[in-house]
Amino acid sequence: MAFSMQPHGIQSMLKEGHKHLSGLDEAVLKNIDACKQLSTITRTSLGPDGMNKMVINHLDKLFVTNDAATIVNELEIQHPAAKILVLAGKAQQEEIGDGANLTISFAGELLQNAEELVRTGLHPSEIISGYTKAITKTLEILEELVEKGSETMDVRNKEQVVSRMKAAVASKQYGLEDILSSHIADACIQVCPKNPVNFDVDNVRVSKLVGGVLHNCTVIRGMVLKGDAVGSIKRVEKAKVAVFATGVDSFATETKGTVLIHSAEQLENYAKTEEAKVEELIKAVADSGAKVIVSGGAVGEMALHFCDCYKLMVLKISSKFELRRFCRTTGTSALLKLSQPKPDDLGFVDSISVEEIGGSRVTVVRSEDGGNKVATVVLRGSTDSILDDLERAVDDGVNTYKAMCRDSRIVPGAAATEIELARRLKEFSFKETG
């Protein structure tokens, strides 16, 4: 007689295929092991001599990079303890914009040493209190290691900015840091507000255009939009701009109704009224002094025809984030429906022109003196993956600049500070009890 064994205890509560670890050692050591594995993956990519990793994500997109933040974001890590490490790396990336790799590798090392202590019978909470003491002490020592005179740095002095930014850029693009740092510094200084603490990373944009080499990179005051202008007018200078978020088109009437048409004349008149309505709207925009219309949605053919008649340049920006940035660059208010804009709603650009860079047509919006400026670093490279990697280097440079704006103090580099901290902490540990 066969009977099935009924699971009992915790097994009866959880579904099949679960893992149940009991006891401190087993659970803790399994968690530490997972974190060590993650740290081993990123560790070899640390620093300028770090190796690149090839990561293929779930969409089969290929990443070749030594940027730890990208690597851990694209690895779909399931283990809960390792996930905490990933979150720590992400938090570091969002807060400082660099150093995600060090965060993960260092955490892995701390855990590896903790593992030996756990095996010798120390309780995790004792280890934690030890680590907490160490970090408090580290912060005290750090204050003493600051280079003298570094707190009076001028964030608008290009030489000083480049000298501090180089290290961060070199760790991503070794050998290219001179060219890149110079461009990034130019872009950052251009958009730096009166009070540097308010520097916004989002104001330095990156536009990636395949083709050419790094020496063709440039910095443009303003924005670079992928794509061509819609109408026949490709260039305007010193013009007012109107932005319509919903699109430029003849809208259907608001009330629904049935129209009975008896003759061809009536049909013709019906069509003409619609045409006249669109012309009236476009003429109203032209009369307000605007020379450029930017649409966040579709641009109707009839509307386009009248825009050309009234010599209006038409741009289409489908991304709403990009549209918001455009409004910020030019100081425009986006209008919801096609109507005559008020003078306050209009923005101003120094020039908008359609240019050809490396075989792709882009629209360059230059705004020399906007309230909230935007600068764009135009990156050139032979493949998409090189461009992506260059973009990450620019990202690190810009974030370094943000950190400089908040606190310009520096400590000696090339791991000198880290070795000194380690030496002093060791001395400190001999004095502590427990």
Automatic annotation (TrEMBL):
<dbReference type="InterPro" id="IPR027413">
    <property type="entry name" value="GROEL-like_equatorial_sf"/>
</dbReference>
<dbReference type="GO" id="GO:0005524">
    <property type="term" value="F:ATP binding"/>
</dbReference>
<dbReference type="GO" id="GO:0051082">
    <property type="term" value="F:unfolded protein binding"/>
</dbReference>
<dbReference type="GO" id="GO:0005737">
    <property type="term" value="C:cytoplasm"/>
</dbReference>
<dbReference type="InterPro" id="IPR012721">
    <property type="entry name" value="Chap_CCT_theta"/>
</dbReference>
<protein>
    <recommendedName>
        <fullName>CCT-theta</fullName>
    </recommendedName>
</protein>
<dbReference type="GO" id="GO:0140662">
    <property type="term" value="F:ATP-dependent protein folding chaperone"/>
</dbReference>
<dbReference type="InterPro" id="IPR027409">
    <property type="entry name" value="GroEL-like_apical_dom_sf"/>
</dbReference>
<keyword id="KW-0143">Chaperone</keyword>
<keyword id="KW-0067">ATP-binding</keyword>
<dbReference type="InterPro" id="IPR002423">
    <property type="entry name" value="Cpn60/GroEL/TCP-1"/>
</dbReference>
<dbReference type="InterPro" id="IPR017998">
    <property type="entry name" value="Chaperone_TCP-1"/>
</dbReference>
<dbReference type="InterPro" id="IPR002194">
    <property type="entry name" value="Chaperonin_TCP-1_CS"/>
</dbReference>
<dbReference type="InterPro" id="IPR027410">
    <property type="entry name" value="TCP-1-like_intermed_sf"/>
</dbReference>
<dbReference type="Pfam" id="PF00118">
    <property type="entry name" value="Cpn60_TCP1"/>
</dbReference>
<dbReference type="GO" id="GO:0016887">
    <property type="term" value="F:ATP hydrolysis activity"/>
</dbReference>
<keyword id="KW-0547">Nucleotide-binding</keyword>
<keyword id="KW-0963">Cytoplasm</keyword>
<comment type="similarity">
    <text>Belongs to the TCP-1 chaperonin family.</text>
</comment>
